[in-house]
Amino acid sequence: MANHKLKFGGVDNLAWVNDEDEANSSSKDIRPQHSKIGVTVSSPPALRIIDQSGSLKKIADHPDDKLPPTLSNEDNDQLMDFDDVLPSVGEFGTYQIILFFLTAPFCFFLAFSYFSQVFITLIDVHTCHVPQLNQSGLNLTQKRAISIPLVTQTVLGGPPAFDSCTMYDVDYELVLREGLVPNETWPTTPCRNGWDYDLEQIRYHSAITENDWVCEKAGHAPLAQAVFFLGSIVGGLVLGYIADRFGRIPALILCNLIGALAGIITAVSKSFGLFTFSRFLMGIAFDNSFTLMYILVLEYVGPTYRTLVANLSIALFYTVGTTILPWIAWGISDWRMFSLATSIPMASAIAAYWIVPESARWLLSQGQTDRAVSILRTFARINKKQVDESVYENLKTSTEEAIQASSKEPAQTVLDLLRTPRLRRNTILLTLLWALIAVVYDGHARNTANLGLSVFLTFSVASVTELPADLVLVFFLDRWGRRALAFGSLLFAAIFSLATLAVPNNQAVLTAVLAIIGRFCVNITFNIGLQYGAELIPTSVRAQGIAYVHIAGYVAAIVSPYIVDLARISPILPLTILGLLALIGAIVGLMLPETLGAVLPETIEDGENFGKDQTFWDFPCCQRPVEITPDSSSIGESPAATTDTTAISPRFARGPAHRVNSLRASIRGEGFRSSLLARQRRQTHNANEKEPVRQTTSLSTQPIDKRALTSHGKP
């Protein structure tokens, strides 16, 4: 008997259980009459679904040469979607491998544009410049000892330090001649002749030291970073529209050209206004500079390999990009040249016009079937696949029918998430959780400059934690669940961040170690965050809902640079605040329902009812696996067809261990834009409610279109 399976790209829906190992069987898809682009409904032998009460229901059981009564061989021959064509042209052949490696430079662009300002606006110890001491023969430390008052930090304690913004207002010739020692009675005055900057740790003059953005101008750097995040919001909306209207490749090229222009303007800026404008432009570019390419590549990878490719591109290339960035700054040691070196390469994205194919899914959604088929022919040729001409003709016919049907479908908006009480609660909690995650992640990444060690070394070591964080998800996300891992990782992030309060002031290494471990924990949570949202938000508004959550994270991240800037008051303030926010996030995460192994919500009604049967103390990692052996007579199956089914608990139903794919797409810098994905969602929304095969169960059994889940996603 052939093993027919439900195919949905990206993250698997673990509620679906098949009796046979797909590795030992072949697939033969069967289509309902009104199948849509992006949704594939296959009819497997003895396919069952485990509902949230633990019951088993038979969907279909038929021999190879017979089809369910609701379907026909004619439908099977004629109706086809993009995922059906991928196996014919190659799911992960030579062309896909080339595209995978082409994501590397775009990962670097993401890392460079996101974190470059850390090394453009470095600042270390600075004190008032006293010109009367220029010819004194004293070194900088000795000059500070007689001209700069010591201040004791009153917030959370700390050792006395030289005041950065005041100096003694005395006759320094008299002080030197008489050998006077400063005391509290000496009058002070604000700096009048500029500042002396300590370059021992930061190595070179930055935009801050060159323009004296200190003391009363100390808010310039965090303001520029906040404007960067405002640009990210604008970029998500504008470039999302351009990608949906004119195509992914034009939007990708335009986005990276904006990033290159922003870096050039940054390098030549002579005023704060121009510098801030350049950071706004870089904000427009930073997320989309990678995610547009990321989405496009994942669309051409078969479902079997999609999550692997999604994880590897982030875990490898993004980690490498963030790790080498500080050493580029260290090697160049000039903030203007560093800005040029990390932005001008973005202009090379123009080459994508000739070497990267346009999204065939987008072309199909626009009715440009001939161009889409031409691209698929190229894939088949490079992958050395022979494809029957009828495959392309069937795809054209199915696309035309799907477009006609989708034009009659009613639209739903993100506001529907707020219309019912339970779904409204989950949406608000999810938004709050992601906002806290975004602030804590960004704060930890930027606070490496305040740890008292070389910012180049600490930033590089902290960035390496991206890779093991991804590996933790690979091995534990489908064992412990989203809720437990989100709570645990945020809780440990809070513990390690707050533990720095107990570290003596002279133990900078220990403080850095605790902060980096906290960063590692936050990395884990970040990768969970948007996937959690993608599973909680109903299918009908999923793309718009995730875009809303993602933009909320950008809005929240605006406060992150101001939290980091509190190190001017006390070096331990940023980690203290970030630790408290992580603790709040951990509590918020506990209030959300678990999604591991559950039948994910399709409609607004499903979203309202989702998780009602769960209790606060339900954790998949604490559930004892039980064998479920249904009465074969009651469901029309033979005992042999049901011996492979297990479930963790009635509330968390899962398939056999050998069918569970623990790889998940890392959602970093995430490209969940409603304007990018809403059209595809409209083409799949509601039509599947008419499928006869779904009438065999009271639950919503439509396979989730998970392509959106792997189309990522870091602020």
TrEMBL record:
It is a multi-pass membrane protein. The chain crosses the membrane at residues 97-115, 223-242, 249-268, 280-301, 308-329, 335-356, 427-445, 451-477, 484-503, 509-533, 545-563, 569-592. Residues 680-715 are annotated as: Disordered. It is found in: Membrane. SUPFAM superfamilies: MFS general substrate transporter (SSF103473). Keywords: Membrane, Transmembrane, Transmembrane helix. This is Major facilitator superfamily (MFS) profile domain-containing protein.
